[in-house]
Amino acid sequence: MKKLTLLTAVLFFAGSASAQKYSSKNGKLTFEASVPLFDDIYAQDDNNMVILNADTGEMASVSVVKNFHFKTKLMEEHFNESYAESAKFPKTTFKGKIVGFDKSKLTASPQKYTVQGTLNFHGVDKAIASAASIHTKEGKIYMQGSFVAKPADYKVTIPKVVTKKIAENVNVEYNYILIK
Questions:
Q1: How far apart are CA 77 and CA 82, in angstroms?
Q2: What Rg value do the Cα atoms of the chain yield, rounded?
Q3: The pTM is what?
Q4: Three-state SS string across the chain, please?
Q5: Contact 165, 173 (CB under 8 A)
Q6: What is the C-alpha end-to-end distance of the chain, expressed in Å?
Q7: pLDDT of the chain along its 180 residues, tens only?
Q8: Which of 18, 33, 51, 171 would suit a FRET pair with 43, their CA atoms being 20 to 30 Å apart?
Q9: Which of 141, 144, 119, 142 is nearest to 129 (CA)?
Q10: What is the per-residue pLDDT for 34?
């Protein structure tokens, strides 16, 4: 828990003091790994923390892995104990940049951007790129996007008994309302 608190402090105080920082402590992060004819595998974290430096487009986020909730407690238990190993790897982080971001050009109409950076899950860092839609309204920045992650890329072992029940490509979506 101390590491999570320290990481959060670093995220919130990184960069210069004069930078325009926007943040959220209740961003929505979901993933879906369902396969037709089997149980839906869907989880959601409504407490994803994110910070955006509006001057540079740099951003970072952190989620506590145990904050991902499934439709059944059994799925949640299997995810935390067998796949994510949340006792050993308690958080997932992202650090990156919105390519070509210019806050002064944001309007109420969503604009398409690419977010590039490094996702750390299960103790593995992997470069990702994400398509994002960003707009501003009433002084807030709204950001939503998605990307695909493969459990194998993050050294997540899926037992052969259930490999046909879990998608090889996991769809990850995020939705943030960032305030100054």
A1: 8
A2: 17
A3: 0.84
A4: CHHHHHHHHHHHHCCCCCCCEEEEEEEEEEEECCCCCCCCCEEEEEEEEEEEECCCCEEEEEEEHHHCECCCHHHHHHHHHHHCCCCCCCEEEEEEEEECCCHHHCCCCCEEEEEEEEEEECCEEEEEEEEEEEEEECCEEEEEEEEEECHHHHCCCCCHHHHHHCCCCEEEEEEEEEEC
A5: no
A6: 26
A7: 555 554 555 555 554 445 799 999 999 999 998 877 677 889 999 999 999 999 999 999 999 999 999 998 998 998 999 889 999 999 999 999 999 999 999 999 999 999 999 999 999 999 999 999 999 999 999 999 999 999 999 999 887 877 778 888 999 999 999 999
A8: 51
A9: 119
A10: 82
Nearest of 76, 48, 80 to residue 64 by alpha carbon: 48
CA dihedral 27, 40, 113, 54 (to 10 degrees): 10
- Residue 18: the pLDDT is 52
Do 138 and 159 contact (CB within 8 A), yes or no?
A: no
- Alpha-carbon span 65 to 119, nearest angstrom: 13
Enumerate the β-bridge partners of residue 171. 32, 148
